[in-house]
UniProtKB/TrEMBL annotation:
Its EC number is 1.14.15.7. PANTHER family: CHOLINE MONOOXYGENASE, CHLOROPLASTIC. The keyword Metal-binding applies. The gene is LOC100839185. Catalyzes the first step of the osmoprotectant glycine betaine synthesis. This is Choline monooxygenase, chloroplastic. It comes from the Eukaryota.
Amino acid sequence: MAIAQVLALSSSTSSFVRTDRPKVRRAAPSRVAAAAAGATVGEPARRLVAAFDPAIPLASAVTPPSEWYTDPEFLRLELDRVFLRGWQAVGHIGQVKNPNDFFSGRLGNVEFVICRDAHGKLHAFHNVCRHHASLLACGSGQKTCFQCPYHGWTYGLDGALLKATRISGIKNFNKNVFCDNYLDGGYHVPYAHGALASGLQLQSYETLTYERVSVQRCESAPAEQEDIDRLGTKAIYAFVYPNFMINRYGPWMDTNLAVPLDATRCKVVFDYFLDESLLDDQDFIDQSLKDSEQVQIEDIALCEGVQKGLESPAYGVGRYAPSVEMAMHHFHRLLHTNLCG
């Protein structure tokens, strides 16, 4: 299985680093990070956090109030307490495999760029020009430097400011500093994913929870002789709190990264991985992508419908299905712990 190392953002106010945690060069905190670090919790958000009691046993517990998924102030609290205070997955090592490779992204209000310099060293920075906050990089590709499209300030892929146009007369300026529906235990599968359900032995579905990870697994049904056996012998779904998912079906694996956009929307980034022995099997690849896409289309319709329901004044809180929704309850308890600070 050709699996890439996962890249992650740290919660440092001045820089982002990768998962193996090399020494971090400290710089003056950016305006964005400083604002996030100083965020205060409003009384409405505190009341929403307190509305969920993680101490109630699963069989008697109710889910968090719908405002956890709809309220803008709650999203600000969530970004500060959950996403900006710990390591977050942002991509895989194959996206910056070669010198001068880069890709950009966004987490909440934090714009970032991941790059590998000419010497092969991996870096992660705030994707903001220190001049007037213009974004420096967009998308992915190869660059030998990042040039601001606003006023031409230019930065090396090691974060150094190489050229600052028209800066004569500026005082106290140091040219050398820059930087910086998954968890329901298969509950929805037979109702929302008929094709996928037909390939699984749902009676074998089990859920395991660990400190910040939950794992769901299920035996696969025997494949028909003429079918492409994408599922293998077992399906495994791992959720890494707060927003990273790994789905393994035999020789096929995909990862999902859920990134919040605002109080009611998120973006999910998919990456696909395949056992090396099947890299030349285009029929297998095409069918696997088609099957995966079908599940995503079904999940999008499902999640959008649920979101509309959460926003309805007719809905307040729901209940858990104790025999299958252990991972969901586990997730909500972890979220509550973070939100309480």
